[in-house]
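Minutes, project huddle
Topic: does the predicted pose make sense with heme C bound?
PN asked that the exact inputs be recorded in the minutes so nobody has to dig through chat later. Recorded below.
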Amino acid sequence: MKYTKYFSLIVLFIVVMTSCNKDKNNPGYDYMGDHDMYYTKYYKAYTPNPVFRDSMTNQLPVEGAVSRGNMPFPYATAGIGDRAVNQTLAGMQLTNPIAYNEETVARGKELFNVYCKVCHGETAKGDGHLYTSGLFPAKPTSLVEAYVQNKPDGEIYYVITAGSISGLMGPHGTQVSPDDRWMVINYLRSLAK
Ligand code: HEC
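Predicted holo structure (tokens), as shared on screen:
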């Protein structure tokens, strides 16, 4: 009985000592090593995938998914008639989510100077360099007069996103992020006469 105890201790000692593996490139044996839980089967982004029905690993977001920082814009942007209706609709339905304060007005000014000043001018009265130099044929609207200042934020947001109804001013939705558009609007409000 005594010897069996020592014998099993010696066997255990040998097993423990030999189970350490000095080969750094080989993990050695492991318990349940073939199990998926330990070694996950993964598929690289652009490789075929047997799990999905369309066999693509990179899946499109589900329909209706809204990406971070984006606001749904369910308004028609083509056709003069549809544009007019949708600009009015945006004016009634959208509210500016960006607080009006010194900081957002200052950021709006920076953005205005980058995206709008060339046409609408330093003081937003419609006398930007592109127009006064004759390079751009259409007179940009003054943004400080009642005509624009009386429009709700959502309408101006529509114009920045989709362009003016006539199409003379092009859309800026791909260049200016939604939050930035609202900040430009805050800046325009600070210019009200
Ligand atoms: C390439 C020149 C150009 C740029 C850049 C430009 N605009 Fe305009 N914008 C115009 C012209 C031209 C009009 C008049 C268009 C018309 O009457 O259809 C106009 C009209 C507008 C109007 C009045 C729309 C209406 O309903 O009558 C607003 C508001 C406006 N712009 C805001 C902006 C803002 C904000 C930016 C910067 C994000 C900007 N624009 C950039 C040329 C420009």
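Observations noted during the meeting:
- The chain has a mean pLDDT of 90.
- Residues 153 and 185 are 7 Å apart (CA to CA).
No decisions taken; revisit at the next huddle.
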